[in-house]
């Protein structure tokens, strides 16, 4: 329907006309989007990401469909991205997480900064399609147009076409496009457009007030309170501090019960700030569940939980949280897969973490060093120098962390973990003296109830004994580390690591007599009840 004389153009009207003039003059979608943003931004608060869509002349549903098609093409499950979330991005109420930003850049063929987002894309590649004959044109500084009268199209100094808005008689800023109207408001609007007189009767005013009340109810309605979220956040942090001291299966049940409750709350509409806190809790609980599944030996489920954690973290837009999920996921191939994949995930986590000191920024180089140590042990010649450099980077960032970042073993990165990772790297590099020295110090830093890491440290020291040439001592240390564990703490990851010690002994010394007793000890049923935990000083 054409605009009636005297009606103020809407955001969509102006964007449509800017696009039409831009296409007529051969401007690219990126240039048209910049024009729309410059014209509509001051009037309607139009964001860059919305200007990009308006420049293409497509609806929200079209962008959502294209993103879903990319997910389907890559064999991924459908994303949760919908028109409501995309609209929140366009309004500036939320920012897309790294994964969604990647797919939006791919759909729009734009870089993150062209969509109003900071930092490089998570894929590390460019998305903008530049002309083959040269770089992207540099925009000229904006100059003020000549004085205008009415709604006219005038040439700008750079020969671009702009649409001006006649604001005579306006008492304030122009409103943006409205959404769905109820039957009364649509009928009234049609009568006004037809030039008919409309009285402010009770039916019309009642419809207006009804919509206002519904909006009030929507904005304040929530099935979760800030106090409840405070309690869940405290509980989640408590899990992080206790997850090594509690038997893995018991901890998994506790974590998943809260995870199930958070899932139900996420499925219902919450205010934006509460929804983001819920997604953060969901990401942390899913990531913690992934860690527990590593301990239990189910690497398939561990990966699934980390994927869920990544999706939840993307909903928060917090790159540090996304980096924490990624670096923790790297432990799956570290223990059960290919160290090359662990190396890839560790470096991806460093890219996500950026330069600001954070848990992931310190832990990722340490994980990278461990992965390179494993590759060096397999004969990769350039891995050893890279591992030592990565340890230096990790220690440098670690020294900048606050106490809040070094307080627990799950969501933080502690001094004892840093020492463990350093000792593990030296051990894999064949430097058994440096490795044993650092691991001995790590033993004194762990609490007696940190069963998982303490046992892994003792098993690493068994490898140091092997490198020193004492196969029997290596098997003795590894066997004691497992048999002294209570039955409920003898998780798969520890037994798996102990078997790796046995395999290393067999590879170096053949099937020696001591190996038979060692394997029988590992296969024997674990004793119930608390085991004797030797003092760290006795384990040196």
Task: Give structural notes.
With 540 residues, this protein is an all-alpha fold. Helix content is 63%, strand content 1%. It is built from 24 helices and two strands. The chain has a two-stranded antiparallel sheet with strand order 1-2. A hairpin with a 5-residue loop joins strand 1 and strand 2. Helix 13 runs parallel beside helix 16, helix 18 packs parallel to helix 20 and helix 20 packs antiparallel against helix 21. The radius of gyration is 30 Å and the shape is elongated. The relative contact order is 0.05. The N terminus and C terminus are likely disordered.
Tell me, rounded to a whole number, the average pLDDT: 81
Instruction: Report the C-alpha radius of gyration, rounded.
Output: 30 Å
Q: From the structure provided, what is the oligomeric state, counting identical versus distinct chains?
A: single chain
* Uncertain spans: 1-6, 130-181, 528-540
**Strand arrangement, major sheet:** 1-2
Distance between the termini: 84 Å
Order of helices and strands: HHHHHHEEHHHHHHHHHHHHHHHHHH
Shape: elongated
Helix content: 55-70%
Task: Count the E strands.
Answer: 2
Sheet with the most strands, sense and barrel status: 2 strands, antiparallel
How does the helix and strand content classify structurally? mainly alpha
Strand content: under 5%
Question: How many helices does DSSP assign?
Answer: 24
């Amino acid at each position: 329907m054409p605009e009636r004389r005297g009606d103020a153009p809407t955001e969509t009207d102006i964007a449509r006309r800017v696009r039409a003039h831009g296409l007529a003059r051969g401007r690219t979608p990126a240039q048209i989007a910049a024009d729309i943003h410059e014209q509509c931004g001051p009037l309607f608060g139009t964001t860059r990401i919305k200007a990009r869509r308006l420049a293409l002349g497509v609806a929200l549903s079209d962008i959502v469909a294209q993103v879903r098609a990319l997910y389907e093409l890559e064999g991924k499950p459908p994303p949760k991205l919908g028109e409501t979330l995309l609209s929140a991005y366009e309004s500036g109420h939320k920012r897309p997480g790294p994964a969604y930003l990647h797919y939006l850049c791919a759909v729009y063929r734009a870089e993150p900064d062209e969509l109003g987002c900071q930092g490089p894309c998570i894929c590390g590649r460019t998305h903008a399609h530049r002309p083959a004959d040269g770089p992207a044109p540099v925009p000229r500084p904006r100059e003020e147009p000549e004085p205008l009268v009415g709604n006219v199209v005038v040439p700008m100094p750079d020969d671009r076409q702009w649409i001006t808005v006649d604001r005579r008689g306006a008492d304030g800023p122009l409103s943006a496009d409205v959404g769905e109207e109820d039957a009364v408001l649509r009928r009234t609007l049609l009568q006004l457009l037809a030039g008919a007189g409309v009285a402010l009767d009770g039916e019309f005013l009642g419809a207006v007030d009804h919509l206002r009340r519904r909006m009030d109810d929507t904005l304040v309605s929530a099935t979760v309170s800030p106090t409840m979220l405070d309690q869940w956040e405290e509980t989640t942090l408590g899990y992080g501090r206790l997850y090594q001291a509690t038997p893995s299966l018991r901890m998994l049940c506790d974590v998943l019960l809260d995870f199930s409750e958070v899932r139900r709350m996420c499925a219902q509409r919450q205010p934006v700030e509460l929804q983001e806190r819920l997604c953060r809790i969901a990401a942390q609980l899913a990531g913690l569940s992934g860690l527990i599944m590593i301990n239990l030996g189910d690497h398939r489920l561990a990966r699934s939980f980390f994927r869920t954690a990544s999706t939840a973290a993307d909903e928060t837009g917090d790159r540090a949280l996304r980096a924490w999920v990624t670096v923790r996921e790297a432990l799956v191939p570290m223990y059960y897969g290919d160290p090359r994949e662990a190396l890839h995930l560790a470096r991806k986590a460093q890219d996500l973490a950026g330069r600001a000191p954070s848990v992931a920024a310190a832990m990722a180089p340490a994980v990278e060093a461990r992965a390179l140590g494993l590759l060096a042990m397999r004969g990769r010649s350039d891995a050893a120098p890279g591992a030592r450099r990565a340890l230096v980077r990790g220690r440098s960032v670690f020294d900048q962390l606050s106490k809040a970042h070094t307080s627990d073993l799950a969501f933080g990165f502690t001094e004892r973990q840093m020492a463990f990772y350093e000792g593990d790297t030296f051990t894999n590099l064949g430097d058994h003296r440096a490795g044993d020295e650092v691991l001995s110090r790590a033993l004194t830093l762990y609490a007696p109830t940190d069963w998982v890491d303490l046992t892994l440290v003792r098993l690493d020291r068994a490898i140091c004994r092997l490198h020193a040439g004492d196969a029997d001592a290596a098997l003795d240390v590894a066997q004691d580390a497992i048999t002294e564990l209570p039955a409920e703490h003898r998780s798969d990851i520890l037994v798996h690591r102990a078997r790796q010690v046995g395999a290393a002994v067999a590879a170096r010394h053949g099937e020696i007599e001591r190996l038979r007793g060692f394997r029988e000890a590992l296969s024997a049923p674990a004793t119930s009840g608390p085991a004797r935990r030797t003092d760290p000083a006795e384990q040196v």
